[in-house]
Amino acid sequence: MSTRTIPIRAATGAPSQAFEYLSTKKDELVGWARKFSLFPYPFVTACCAMEFMAVSSTPYDTDRFGAALPRFSPRQSDLLMVVGTISHKQAPVLLKVYEQMCEPKWVMAFGACATSGGFYQNYGAVAGIDKIIPVDIYVPGCPPRPETVIDAIMKLQDSIGRAHHPIVTADF
Amino acid sequence: MEPTLFERVQQGLGLPAAAMSLSHGVLAIEVGAADVLPIATRLATEMTFDLLLDVTAVDWPDRPARFDVVYHFYSTAHAARVRVKTRVAEASPVVDSLISLYGSAHFMERECHDMYGIVFRGNPDLRPLLLYEGFVGHPLRKDYPKEREQPLVPYRK
């Protein structure tokens, strides 16, 4: 978000150093608000869950990035974190959860299995959740390091901050 | 010397010695498909084998009687295991269900039916357990292609 403070001359004529206002674009304003209020829905199915717990709790603490409070209802969340292997039997559940989330929504494929099926190639596993739902960011690793997850969150926030937000219309 | 549990099982069942062997501390018994239920009944009622640990199968694609159906029994009184194996052909992969003896047989026979297509005569509920309705074939048979997928939701383009 680009900010610019413009010193305003008070009536007395003395220049004021106070933070009077800032200028930005509407898209950037909305993006800035959205990127720091990600409410993740952890769709946790497998061993990556342990790494998810590590990254969301104290030492690494995704709270610092405004992506902390897990909501266990898809209607209250806007970041779907798919953590672990998705089986064909479970795919309809994942799709339903995704469809129940309100716009705007983003999807993170957390770990090798959610990204590509990982080392599974068989009758049971979906070879990557992007066969079923659109994915915004992929996190590699089996399981991913906490740093990788934090990097992914920051990259996602970056792209949210720079995106065009459909609520910004001429009347906004 | 007091006979061991395995010796007593061997004598009690009255099977030929060739049908039994000791494998990794487990007494392994090979029987015909029709003898599974009578032998399991005697193991359960007379010889203290009160737990049915597992029902599974092994696929030997080149063998005339293609499948081994394998049962593991456990005696909590003696901390001993017995394995019962039988052979069935692909044309009629049928064995008698053990649900009259062990409640755990319900789910384990369902799973075995899922994965290998073994039919357990007498089990009233052989619906898919780990698989789903509409799944065609039995994925742990050796002739099921490993890359064959049967998705429930249409893939995105």
What does this structure look like?
The complex is a heterodimer of chains A (172) and B (157). Chain A is α/β, with parallel strands linked by helices and 172 residues long. Helices cover 30% and strands 10% of the residues of chain A. Chain A has a single domain (38-162), classed as Rossmann fold, CATH 3.40.50. Chain A is built from five helices and four strands, in the order H-E-H-E-H-E-H-E-H. Chain A has a four-stranded parallel sheet. The radius of gyration of chain A is 20 Å and the shape is elongated. Chain B has 157 residues and is an alpha/beta fold. Chain B has one domain (5-121): Beta Polymerase, domain 2 (2-Layer Sandwich). In chain B, strands 1-2-5-4-3 form a five-stranded mixed sheet. A two-stranded parallel sheet of chain B has the order 6-7. Chain B is elongated, with a radius of gyration of 18 Å. The chains are: A alpha/beta (172), B alpha/beta (157). The interface between A and B is medium-sized, with 16 and 16 residues.
Task: Using brief descriptors, characterize the structure shown.
heterodimer; A: 172 residues; alpha/beta; Rossmann fold; 4-stranded parallel sheet; 10% strand; B: 157 residues; Beta Polymerase, domain 2; 5-stranded mixed sheet; two-stranded parallel sheet; 3 helices; 7 strands; elongated
Question: How do the helices and strands line up, and which of them pair or pack?
Answer:
The complex is a heterodimer of chains A (172) and B (157).
Chain A: H1 26-35, E1 40-44, H2 48-56, E2 79-83, H3 91-100, E3 106-110, H4 112-116, E4 137-139, H5 146-162
Parallel strand pairs in A: 1-2, 2-3, 3-4
Helix pairs in contact in A: 1-5, 2-5
Chain B: H1 5-13, E1 20-23, E2 26-31, H2 36-45, E3 51-59, E4 67-75, E5 80-88, E6 94-96, H3 105-116, E7 119-121
Parallel strand pairs in B: 2-5, 6-7
Antiparallel strand pairs in B: 1-2, 3-4, 4-5
